[in-house]
């Protein structure tokens, strides 16, 4: 079974991004699921990574053992994916990242330990806008080159952090999924 798991970005507006990914790409998989973050409902500002990892674990542990998982993750959802993989909560076959905010995670979340990225061995591509105002392109480019050189960085040119212009990603994303 091929499973798509979508991990949106931090803010509630990223729910629409996740729904767009499901709408456009779920037909390429046998099943799909998007994580809805607790803080979207409880008024907190940011993802509780520990709590959300537990929800991922609960979902993944109910899947058949031979399930092949693909993760689509945007922004803070990308950081969640790196942590959940590092903690052996989820073992995907491949990942597609959008706008990884490594610059925001290095001090607070990773505490300057890049182990979740250094030990990441999953096949992955990462789309990143050169002019992303939230996640610094150069920082992410350098972090991937240093800690996860097997992850293919695909430079994109939207002037925001939305990553919802499907036509920008569709051809490369579909090609990646077919391999």
Give a description of the structure.
The chain is an alpha/beta fold and 179 residues long. 42% of the residues lie in helices and 19% in strands. It contains eight helices and six strands. It has helices spanning 14-25, 39-42, 49-61, 76-86, 102-108, 115-118, 137-147, 166-178; strands at 2-7, 31-34, 68-74, 94-98, 123-129, 152-156. Strands 2-1-3-4-5-6 form a six-stranded parallel sheet, with helices on both faces. Strand 1 (2-7), helix 1 (14-25) and strand 2 form a beta-alpha-beta unit. It is globular and about 40 Å long. The relative contact order is 0.15. The mean pLDDT is 95.
Features:
19% strand; 6 strands; 42% helix; 179 residues; single chain; globular; 6-stranded parallel beta sheet; alpha/beta
Oligomer: single chain
The beta-strand count equals 6
| Shape designation | globular
User: What's the mean pLDDT score?
Assistant: 95
Query: Total helix count?
Result: 8
The percent range for helix content is 40-55%
Record the strand order, biggest sheet: 2-1-3-4-5-6
Q: Low-confidence stretches at least 5 residues in length (pLDDT < 50)?
A: none
CA-atom Rg in angstroms: 15 Å
Portion of residues in beta strands equals 15-25%
Distance between the termini: 16 Å
Secondary structure category: alpha/beta
Q: How are helices and strands ordered from N to C?
A: EHEHHEHEHHEHEH
Q: Report the major sheet.
A: 6 strands, parallel
């Amino acid at each position: 079974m091929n499973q798509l798991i979508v991990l949106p970005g931090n803010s509630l507006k990223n729910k629409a991004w996740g729904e767009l990914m499901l709408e456009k790409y779920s037909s390429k998989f046998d099943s799909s699921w998007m994580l809805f973050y607790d803080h979207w409902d409880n008024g907190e500002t940011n993802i509780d990574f520990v709590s959300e990892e537990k929800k991922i674990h609960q979902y993944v542990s109910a899947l058949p053992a031979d399930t092949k998982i693909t993760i689509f993750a945007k922004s803070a959802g990308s950081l969640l994916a790196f942590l959940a993989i590092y903690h052996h909560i989820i073992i995907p076959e491949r990942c597609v990242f959008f706008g990884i905010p490594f610059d925001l995670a290095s001090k607070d979340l990773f505490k300057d330990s890049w182990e979740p990225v250094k030990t990441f061995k999953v096949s992955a591509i990462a789309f990143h806008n050169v002019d992303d105002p939230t996640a610094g392109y150069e920082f992410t480019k350098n972090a991937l080159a240093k800690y996860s050189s097997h992850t293919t960085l695909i430079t994109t040119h939207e002037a925001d952090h939305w990553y919802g212009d499907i036509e920008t990603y569709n051809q490369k994303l579909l090609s990646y999924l077919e391999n």
